[in-house]
């Protein structure tokens, strides 16, 4: 039985790569959960924020693996990933020091991620489709099984 994800990933951002789409959904879901927690209290669970950064790290590693397996040049995209992780880590450090706001961090992360999928990941998928090593998956919404299989790939 397939369990559908929550609707935080708009259809317009689906890439038709189930493993990647499931991870995108997981990141958006985590951001929404953190936003709800922050708005309900002034307490910021730094471990949860660190978990979001780790989720980004795993997701970026998945995209890099897919590109490598397909023989697609991913160097520019990988640089964007590294720069983003550096920025997120710095802002988290700033939150810990009291010089940055957790709500702003989450709004930025959500906006950045949506733009990244729309502008960078869609271009990446177009390169994948042109690769002779790419098998086009069937079109469908990501399901929980995709998320769990991505953690063990």
Shape: elongated
Number of domains: 1
Count of individual beta strands: 0
Radius of gyration: 16 Å
In angstroms, what separates the terminal alpha carbons? 21 Å
SS class: mainly alpha
Just name the CATH architecture.
Answer: Up-down Bundle
Instruction: Report low-confidence residues grouped into runs of 5 or more.
Output: 1-5, 138-153
Please tally the helical runs, counting DSSP H or I stretches of 4 or more residues: 5
Q: Let me know the largest β-sheet.
A: none
Q: Briefly, what CATH class?
A: Mainly Alpha
Helix percent band: 55-70%
Query: If you consult CATH, what is the topology?
Result: Four Helix Bundle (Hemerythrin (Met), subunit A)
SS strand fraction = under 5%
Mean pLDDT: 83
CATH homology group: Hemerythrin-like
What's the SSE pattern?
Answer: HHHHH
Quickly describe the structure:
With 153 residues, this protein is mainly alpha-helical.
Blueprint of the fold:
Layout: H1 18-40, H2 46-70, H3 75-97, H4 102-130, H5 144-150
Helix pairs in contact: 1-2, 1-4, 1-5, 2-3, 3-4
Could you explain how this protein is built, in words?
With 153 residues, the chain is mainly α. It has one domain (18-150): Four Helix Bundle (Hemerythrin (Met), subunit A) (Up-down Bundle), CATH 1.20.120. Helices cover 70% and strands 0% of the residues. The protein has 5 helices and no strands. It has helices spanning 18-40, 46-70, 75-97, 102-130, 144-150. The longest helix is centred in the last third of the chain and has 29 residues, at 102-130. It is elongated and about 50 Å long. The two termini are 21 Å apart. The model is unreliable at 1-5 and 138-153 (pLDDT under 50).
